[in-house]
Structure formats: C-alpha cells, structure tokens
C-alpha cells in the first residue's frame, strides 16, 4: 500500500483516519468499527462491501 495514499484516505462514512492492517490487507475505521478490504492493492471504500468488526477486534485497536 502506497504511504502517500494512506495519508489521504479517510473513512467514506465519517471521514475519520484509517488504520492499515498489512497482514489482513484491510483499512480499519475505528469510529465506525468497519474494515475495508484491499483487493490487488486497491482499497474498496464502499460501505456496503465493508466488514463489521467484532467487539473483540474493535477493542484490540
């Protein structure tokens, strides 16, 4: 994931900064408790495609 791209990407719902999880290939919005997948190096920033974090995952951030 390009560091410059990570600096400008925000959550499409609440505009909060995102956390990059390299191993999972996801961008995490802590505020909305959503994980946006990264497919072939391209973030999929669609709310309908986002995965909801479990309470345990959200707490671990």
TrEMBL record:
Species name: Gallionella capsiferriformans (strain ES-2) (Gallionella ferruginea capsiferriformans (strain ES-2))
Protein's name according to its UniProt entry: UPF0434 protein Galf_0659
Entry's Gene Ontology cellular component terms: cytosol
Gene3D superfamilies xrefs: 2.20.25.10
One Pfam family here: Trm112p
UniProt superkingdom: Bacteria
Similarity section: In the C-terminal section; belongs to the UPF0434 family. In the N-terminal section; belongs to the LpxK family.
Entry-linked HAMAP family: UPF0434
């Amino acid at each position: 994931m390009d560091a410059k791209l990570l600096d400008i990407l925000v959550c499409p719902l609440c505009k909060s900064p995102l956390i990059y999880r390299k191993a999972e290939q996801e961008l995490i919005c802590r505020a909305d408790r959503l994980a946006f997948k990264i497919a072939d190096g391209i973030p999929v920033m669609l709310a309908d495609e986002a995965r909801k974090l479990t309470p345990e995952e959200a707490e671990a951030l």
